[in-house]
Write a structure and sequence with these properties.
Keywords: Metal-binding, Zinc
Distance between the termini: 30 Å
Protein name: DUF866-domain-containing protein
Family: Belongs to the UPF0587 family.
GO molecular function: zinc ion binding
Radius of gyration: 18 Å
Number of helices: 1
């Protein structure tokens, strides 16, 4: 899939399957818009994934959400293992861990090590920075893998300065080609828009969420 937005990672190198907390930070230029966030818990986040042991990169974009992983196992290339798909369950079992579950489980196609990731229970934080600065959107606990990229494609929502709610389709052709979403707030009689969307991953220290 094409990417109309910029992304970079500032995660220090790591090895093995130790747990690391990664925060997805986003920023965007908001025009007469006071917040921006995914439309629901069903939002399918598209990530690029890398094994922290051998540094192999998953060849596909991987999609998962707070409820289930959205990439069906049969859609993956030969030699890759991933739990997920449209199944009536919230989490998946992790091998070797007593009662351990995760939103995403992957067996690396190079070193064959299993890795996993789990959304933290804290809610998604709507983006509302008027100075176009990076702000945290969500946090994921990772073991044996790290996310290296993010594609925001999907349905988001935002509010205008008048309180009017808007559906923001970041799979729209204009956004995909130009990186711009726009509409009109009739109550406030002003145009609304989102542009210059960018994201980055940051490793957090401890349980407090400090970088």
């Amino acid at each position: 899939m094409s990417k109309p937005v910029s992304h970079h990672s500032i995660i220090p190198p790591s090895t093995g399957a130790s747990m690391v907390r990664l925060a997805l930070y986003i920023k965007a230029e908001l025009t007469n818009v006071v917040d921006l966030q995914p439309a629901s818990d069903d939002f399918e986040y598209s990530f690029k994934v890398q094994c922290t042991k051998c540094r192999a990169v998953h060849p596909n974009w991987v999609t998962l959400n707070h409820k289930v992983s959205a990439t069906p196992p049969h859609a993956l290339p030969l030699g890759l293992f991933l739990t997920g798909g449209s199944y009536p369950q919230d989490k998946y079992e992790v091998s070797g861990g007593k009662n351990s579950t995760a939103h995403f489980v992957w067996r690396c196609h190079e070193c064959k090590c299993e890795s996993s990731a789990k959304f933290e229970t804290s809610p998604v934080t709507p983006y509302s920075d008027e100075n176009v600065q990076f702000a945290p959107l969500l946090i994921i606990e990772c073991r044996g893998l790290e996310f290296t990229d993010f594609d925001p494609s999907g349905i988001w929502k935002c509010s205008g300065t008048s309180g009017t709610s808007f559906t923001v389709d970041l799979e729209d052709r204009t956004f995909r080609s130009e990186g711009v979403w726009s509409d009109y707030d009739e109550k406030a009689a002003v145009p609304v828009g989102i542009s210059e969307f960018a994201s980055e991953w940051r490793a957090l220290k401890g349980k407090t969420g400090k970088k």
